[in-house]
Amino acid sequence: MNDDTLLQLEQRLIEASLPFAVTTVIRALPPTSAWVGAQALVEADGALHGWIGGGCSRTIVIQAALEAIRSGQPKLLRISNTLATQEADVEDHAMPCASNGTIELFIQPTVPPPVVLVLGATPTALEACVLAQRMGLRVAAAASVTLPLAALGLQRVIEGFDSAAFALLKPQLVLVATQGDADEQALEAALRSPAAAVLLVASQRKADKLREAMRVRGIEPQRLAALHAPAGPYIHARTPEEIALGAVAGLVALRRSLEQEQAGGALLPGTAGTLPKVRPCESMAPVVPVAPVAPTPARYVNPVCGMAIDIASAKYVVDYGGQRLYFCCDGCKVEFEREPGKYLAIAQGAQQGETT
Questions:
Q1: Range in 53-57, 181-185, 227-231 the model is least confident about
Q2: Domain 115-263 is of which CATH architecture?
Q3: Which part of the chain is CATH 3.40.50.720?
Q4: pLDDT at residue 312 in the model
Q5: Is 0.90 topped by the overall pTM?
Q6: Helical H runs in the chain?
Q7: Which among 125, 162, 202, 209 could disulfide-bond with 177, CB atoms 3.0 to 4.6 Å apart, if both were Cys?
């Protein structure tokens, strides 16, 4: 296989989002059939294309390349029977050939980033799609209305929350940012997907209610353990852009945790088997402001779930007792109408707190 063909194969694997490793000979001492600059490409199934010497070293190189793909880290490899000073960053192997030549190789893996599925077409969901792509993640999305997602250059856009479609996509991480638009349906589809972790954009109170709703819908406790809510570390987020930033920070943290688990011996992305359990996101310590910050008049705290709402774009509004109240979703609005006195007191208390 010549260099052009090897480069073409590399490009095809990149376009198909398949892992591989390129092995380059960086030193060759005779007698050996390899030469400095000789290259081979090793696929995730162990297939080797190119030339890096005779069959004696082939098995060693393939195994080392597969380990590099699994860990996502490059490595230096020396195959020789000649005594040499051991170096911490060089992996030494005995030369199995009778010729007793020496070759040293550099192995560079290319591992595609995980697929992240963002659910929802809210301002937070749209911003999260953009930020996640900037972080190098492969981003797909699903929503009841997909038109707002069309211009984002996503890998795939799915209409509705279809667990069968999610299973075919095989996302490794799911971010639920529906924020009132079919929350339960979206979260159930996410938890029934093969994703290693599901992040939910919601207040703690709303997240607890949705957890209980998932139990009622038959989601097993071990699967509920994959749910991370609220999504990402606590960063005092208020605007959709800030909420999306925190959620994407959670995606990045869980991605790296997943990679560490895989480097420890778990299966490669796309292979059969259960994805490793990932560690939860750690919250940041609350930040104490150095000076009082005036409340933003355009924001309103939902008295039912505690979520901050942009008054200008609020869809669920109720006038009660001479006061206008805003809600993030129809569920919170219905809950308020059930016990208006209780939540009106909460809303008035929140307003008094902002003015003191």
A1: 53-57
A2: 3-Layer(aba) Sandwich (3.40)
A3: 115-263
A4: 72
A5: no
A6: 3-15, 55-71, 123-134, 163-169, 183-191, 204-216, 221-224, 240-263, 330-338, 340-355
A7: 125
